[in-house]
Amino acid sequence: MKARILICDDEEGIRRYLQKMFLAKEYDVETFADGTSLLARIEGGTEGDADILLQDVRMPDMDGIEVLKRVKKLRPAMPVVVMTAFGTIDAAVEAIKLGAYDYVTKPFPKEKILGLMENALQLDLLMKENRVLKEELSRPDIPDNIVFTSAKFREVYDLTVQVAGSDANILVLGESGTGKELIAGAIHVNSQRKGRRFLSINCAALSDTLLESQLFGHVRGAFTGAITTQKGLLEEADGGTLFLDEIGDVSAAVQAKLLRVIQEREFIPVGATKPKSVDIRFVAATNKDLAKEVAAGRFREDLYYRLNVITIALPPLRERREDIEPLAMHFLAKYARRIRKNIRGFTPEALQSLQGYRWPGNVRELENVVERAAILTRGDLVTPEVLPIRPREDAPLLRPDNLLVSLEEMEREHIERVLRQTGFHKSRTAEILGISRKTLDRKIVEYALAIPGQGISGTLDD
C-alpha cells in the first residue's frame, strides 16, 4: 500500500502541482489551504493514518512554525518536510531544529522533491520497523494459554477473563509457585491494553534504592553512578500493565510513593523535580496475608484497598490434582523440544509418583522436577527413578498424630530438600521457592541449615 501524503500550502497552484505529481506516483494525497484545516485533520485522525507532511512555512491564518510545533506534538514520529521561498531560510532552519526532516526551497525541480520525499518515507519506514522490533524484543513472554482441566482452576480462569476487560487494579493471591505472573499476563492479553506493554518486577528481589530506581527511573546525576537519565518501569508501562510481584515485601517508603502513583496518576523520577503523568493498570501479587500485614502495621491500609479492587485467589497444586498430569505433559514437551529428545510421556508409575506428591512448591516445583527428568531420561518414557521426589516426600504431609510437626519444621524440611535438589545453588533454590535471595539467606541462618563448601552441581553462587 502506497504512503499517504498531506500537503499544506495556501497557493492553489502549488497544491495542484504537487497533488498531480504524487498521484502519478500512486501516492494517496490530501491537500489543505491553511494550518487550521490541517491541524483539524491531524487531530481527528489516528496514529499512522498519514505517513508524511509537506508543509509551507508561511500560512495565511497562523505562523507555519507554530503549525509545525502543534503537528510534532500530535504526531511526533511523522516526518515533516517544509517548503520555503527565498528570504525565509531562517524559518526553515528553525523548523529543522523543531524536528522537521528537511526543507526544500521554491521553486523546486520535480526530481528533487520526489527524491526528498522518497528518502523521508524510507527513513520513516525503517524507524517504524525499528520501533516494532524493539517492542517485540523488550516484551516478556506473555502466556496466551494456561494449562488446566480442573473445575477449580476453571473458576479462576473465568474470573480472570471476566475482570480483565475492566480497568480496575487487581490483587492476585496464592502460594509461591502457583502461577500468579501467568494470571497477570492473562489479565493483560484479555484487556483493552493488550496492544501496549506488559512489564513485571519482583519487588522482594531488590533493595529499596534499586527498586525505587527501577520503578521511577532517575535523572543524570541523581546519585553516584547515575551517568545518564534512565526511564523507569512506570514510564515504560504507560498505557499498559505493570505487574508488582511480592508487593507484600515493599518497604513503607516505597509503598507511599506507589500510593501517589495510583491515586494521582503521576510520579517523579529520582532526582527530578517535575512530575510525569502515566496511565497504568496495576496487577499486584503476594503470598502473604495482606489483611494481617495491614493489621500488624507493616502494609499501608490505603494502598491495600487501592490495589485490592478485585481479588483473584489461586489454589495450590495439591488442591487441583487433575491438573498435575496435563501440566507435566506440557512441561515435558517444552523441555524435550529444547534439549532435542524424543520423550513421549511418563510411565504409569511415574505419573502415580507425581500424583501422590504434595507439591509444596506448586507448579514452579513441578516444572523444575519435569525439566530435571527430561534431562536424565534415556528412553522415550520418564520413569520414577529420574524424578527427584523420594517415597518419604511423596507421603502426605499430614502424618500420624504422634508424628505431627509444626509448619515451621515443614518449611525447614522443604527448603533443605530444594537446596539439596539444586546442588545448593541458592539463586535456583530461591527461584523454585518463589522467594528472594535475601529471604533465602535469612531462612538458612534461621533454620541453621548446613551449606557444604561444594554442592552436587559442582558450584555455589554467593
Topology of this protein?
Layout: E1 4-8, H1 12-24, E2 28-32, H2 35-44, E3 52-56, H3 64-74, E4 80-84, H4 89-97, E5 102-105, H5 110-138, H6 151-164, E6 170-173, H7 180-189, E7 198-202, H8 208-216, H9 233-236, E8 241-245, H10 252-264, E9 266-267, E10 276-277, E11 281-286, H11 290-295, H12 301-307, E12 310-313, H13 324-338, E13 345-346, H14 348-356, H15 362-376, E14 381-382, H16 391-394, H17 407-421, H18 426-433, H19 437-446
Parallel strand pairs: 1-2, 1-3, 3-4, 4-5, 6-11, 6-12, 7-8, 8-11, 13-14
Antiparallel strand pairs: 9-10
Which features would summarize this protein structure in a list?
Rossmann fold, five-stranded parallel β-sheet, 462 residues, alpha/beta
What does this structure look like?
It contains 19 helices and 14 strands. The protein has 462 residues and is an alpha/beta fold. It has a 5-stranded parallel sheet, sandwiched between helices. Strand 1 (4-8), helix 1 (12-24) and strand 2 (28-32) form a beta-alpha-beta unit. Helix 6 (151-164) crosses helix 7, helix 13 packs across helix 15 (362-376) and helix 18 (426-433) packs across helix 19 (437-446). The protein is elongated, with a radius of gyration of 30 Å. Residues 137-142, 391-403 and 453-462 have low confidence and may be disordered.
The CATH homologous superfamily of the largest domain: P-loop containing nucleotide triphosphate hydrolases
Q: What structural class do helix, strand and pairing data support?
A: alpha/beta
Domain count: the total is 4
CATH class of the largest domain: Alpha Beta
CATH topology tier name of the largest domain:
Rossmann fold
> What's the end-to-end separation, in Å?
57 Å
Give me the count of strands: 14
- Uncertain spans, ≥5 residues at pLDDT below 50? 137-142, 391-403, 453-462
Report the portion of residues in β strands. 5-15%
Global morphology: elongated
> What is the annotated CATH architecture of the largest domain?
3-Layer(aba) Sandwich
Main beta sheet strand tally, sense and closure? 5 strands, parallel
Tell me the number of helical segments per DSSP (H or I, 4 or more residues long).
Answer: 19
GO biological process, one term: phosphorelay signal transduction system
GO molecular function: ATP binding; sequence-specific DNA binding
InterPro entries: AAA+_ATPase, AAA_lid_NorR, CheY-like_superfamily, Homeodomain-like_sf, HTH_Fis, P-loop_NTPase, Sig_transdc_resp-reg_receiver, Sigma_54_int
Modified residues (4-aspartylphosphate): 56
